[in-house]
Structure formats: structure tokens, C-alpha cells
Amino acid sequence: MRDEDFIVSKTDEKGRISYCNRIFMEFAGYTESELLGSQHNIVRHPDMPRAVFRFMWETLQSGQEFFGYVKNMASDGSFYWVFANVTPTRNARGEIVGYFSVRRKPRTDAVALIAPLYAEMLAREQAAGAKQAIDASRPLLEEQFQSKGVSYEEFILAL
Q: Under a CB-based contact definition with an 8 Å cutoff, are residues 141 and 48 in contact?
């Protein structure tokens, strides 16, 4: 990604894309018609641990915004890293009705720190099998911030 790029998307409460900007289309390699109505995980790279996304969904469903480093996969199989901020969207009654996500170019040194952690998490998930994958890898993520006495958000923002 270029320094000035911001990937923007909106989804409904189920994660189906309802809006995507041109930068998203450029990096993902999909047309607007291919993205609209698709699950946002259309760009999920298989190197991403499932536990990161479970943590993200728990954070969002609790009404909090989520920050994280994510490796995405383009339609041609190539990948790109992003620093993501995802925020719940609410209706007039305060109910979560969707999500708004802005992604930007991550710092190279932060990716160099998070990529080995994700690789270790993924290895644990694969060794544990699908049913136990998240339970096997999530402690690795939690150890990273709990051992420093900070929240997940503080840990990520300090990378």
C-alpha cells in the first residue's frame, strides 16, 4: 500500500460488504459488483489465524472498536498487509447494524513483529484441528499483551 492510501468498506451485521472504495477494489483485485454482497472474508488470507478474527468479532459485538494487523489475499493470490480499524455502526436505537472499516499501510517493523506470532498461532491451529483451533492459538495472542500488563488495543497500538 502507498502511504496515502485508505481502504474503506462497510458491511452489514453479518459481514456482507455494502460499500467499498476504489482503493479496496485496487488492492483486492475485485470489481465493485464482485465485492458488494460478498462476505468480507473474501480477502481473508489463509495465513491469518482464526483466533484473531474470533477476537475481532468478540470485540466488535461488545460494542468496542477493533484495531489489528491483517494479512489479506487479493483475487490473484497475492497478499497485502493492512493496519485495520473496524467500528460498529449503530441504528437510532443503538443496535449494531453493521461495521465500518478503514485500513491503512502498516508499519513494516510492526508487521515484522506480528507475522511470526501469527505464524505460530496458525501452526497451533493446524495441529489442533478445526474444532480446537481457536482454543489452541488464542492463548499465544493473549500472552503477548497480558505479559506486558496492557490491553490488546494498547499492545497493537504500541507495535
A: no
Confirm whether 1 is domain-assigned: no
Residue 9, beta-bridge partner list: 20, 101
Arithmetic mean of pLDDT over the chain: 97
pTM over the 0.70 mark: yes
Domain of residue 89, CATH code: 3.30.450.20
Residue 72 · residue 43 · CB < 8 Å: yes
Per the structure, the complete domain to which residue 66 belongs is given by 6-158
Residue written as cell 503477548? 144
Query: Which amino acid appears at position 138 of this protein?
Result: R
| Cα gap 89→109, rounded to integer Å | 31
What would the mean pLDDT of 104-126 be, rounded to a whole number? 98
Helix (H, G, I), strand (E, B) or coil at 116: helix
Residue 14: band (very low, low, confident or very high) from pLDDT cuts 50, 70, 90: very high
